[in-house]
Amino acid sequence: MDILLLTLPVLLASGLAPLLTARWFRCCKALHTTLLSAGCLGGLYSLFTFWQHPATATFSCSWLHTFTLSFALDSLGAVFLLPVFLLVPVISLYGYHYLDQATHFRRTALSHFFFSLLTIAMILVTLADNMVTFALAWELMSLSSFALVMHDWEKEQTQSAGYLYLLFTQTGALCIFAAFGLVFQATGSLAFAQMSSIPPGIKLAVFCLTLAGFGSKAGLFPLHVWLPHAHPAAPSHVSALMSGVMIKMGIYGLVRFYFLLDSPTPIFARTILVLGMISGLLGVVYALGKHDLKRLLAYHSIENIGIILIGCGLGMLGLASGNRIMAAFGFAGGILHVLNHALFKSLLFLGAGSILQATGLRHLDQLGGLMRTMPVTGRTFLTGAVAISGLPPLNGFISEFLIYYAAFQGLVLGGTDFLFSMAAIISLALIGGLAAGCFTKVVGIVLLGEPRHTHGREQGDAALSMRAAMVFLALVCVLIGLWPEPFVRFAFAGLASLKPFTAIPGEVSGTIAHHLAVAGRLFLGLLIVLMGCRWLLYRNKPVSQSGTWGCGFTQATSRIQYTGTSYARSLVEFHRPLVRVRTTYPGLGKIFPGSVAYVSKVEDVAELGLHCLLIRPLLKGVEKLRWIQHGHIQLYIGYIVLTIAVLLLVV
Predict the structure, then answer these.
(1) Which GO biological process entries does UniProt record here (predicted)?
(2) What is the model's pTM?
(3) Is residue 463 part of a domain?
(4) In 410-449, which ranges are continuous DSSP H helix?
(5) H or E segment at 545?
């Protein structure tokens, strides 16, 4: 614990140093990356020493002579800290060259400062051991991430995305603080340990409030509206940090407070499970209909948050029904997917950033053929695409298999629990299939085929530091897929400090992890053997190659290739009851028609509902009060005097 706390000043220095050296751009970047990496390496070392002797470590100090700032490190906090310490230096290394084209050096220095501040805030959130400490850390995380989203604040799109994110994150914070108020009113204490003693009715209210607050941060449907706007607006390495690491703090809050409430009732489990299934399915369906690469990846974050919550919901259902194996595998699968998603989603966002930097484009239908000009970016992006689809032998398959195992364990339950477990299996299968379909679209259109862009500023592959970061993440995805045993044990060890899991079925988890490793290696070996057989068969035989039939065109052109809309149209149309598709097509009314455009846009029903039910009535109400804003200073002073008088009379 002492080493972990000592890393915080180093991380703070990594944010302050760029502010002091902003005019020396290279020095600014080098100091930020070096100090941030040093602090995170110290954090990894502290986690390593913690796992040698996994006993809860605590630290507290007084603040303002009134409150106590209390910190604690247990096994659950440690597993959520690992993605922070592992990914932050990698993303920072990528950002070393990503912002090279920035013309505002002071703005870049501010971005480095808030990047370090967000890292510190996420560490403090996982260490917080009372309500005051948690509230301060949560607000610091919200405000620093808002500042990062607003990096290009002169753009109107960035402003609207930033303010939308601020609205959702502050509304979520109000829900969390309201839950804290209920707990304090019932117990008279700010300590987390007292939460289990509150009455059942208040527990239900606290659960609903924390679900709304943490669900908003995690991007849980229908509280996800900010996420597809904030990620395209933020710099790509910031999107990687927010999607890969920060939104997992919402998952941490849900899991932590569920166990603090100590109320394993079926209603909590079923609520989380249903919301997870809805988020997973709608997230991937909306991703299928999107053509902006970063917006598409943002919807896949919603999908994977749904997968994590399916695992946690199955774990809660196992606790409520007394099935400890189901509970352990559900939570362990969800926790491992937190790490896996952090790895492959960060990899995909970094790949999208490299493509954006090289071409200046994000729209799928303006890209193409980048595997030839950006081979490292293309191959690492392909690795991330296979991983996020949950296919062997990569890491996404391992965590999803554990969740599947928990769901199949739930089939032995009776009544409605059997139906919920079956629904979870069907949902996971649909999510996996649709995700694979979506990323065949992305890879096929962006990386393969003929280039569609004619005005992009393509400059070849990404810089060395950017490629190194992507290669590292891709290798870790492969490593977990082929050697999952230590990572599966790590996920189960994360449950050790929680009261229901004092005796975790280690033999069962170890056996399954070993079988998964063998299956992954056999799958990889089979691929290698098949490729070798093909090479042997064609080694001494003449093989002729010719171009694909061009439908009458004399040479290959992007006009005869699939677009993102045409590729995913049938899948999106199939889910039309769940999504709203708006099309614009004037039709062909002449024998020799001119140029005709077909435009298809998949609209988010949650965003439409927010606009119709809240924003539009609010704007109409405010419009009726516009007469108050007339520009006369004297009347404004009168408003102030009148308000003060009313407050004095009331108070």
Answers:
(1) ATP synthesis coupled electron transport
(2) 0.89
(3) yes
(4) 416-442
(5) none
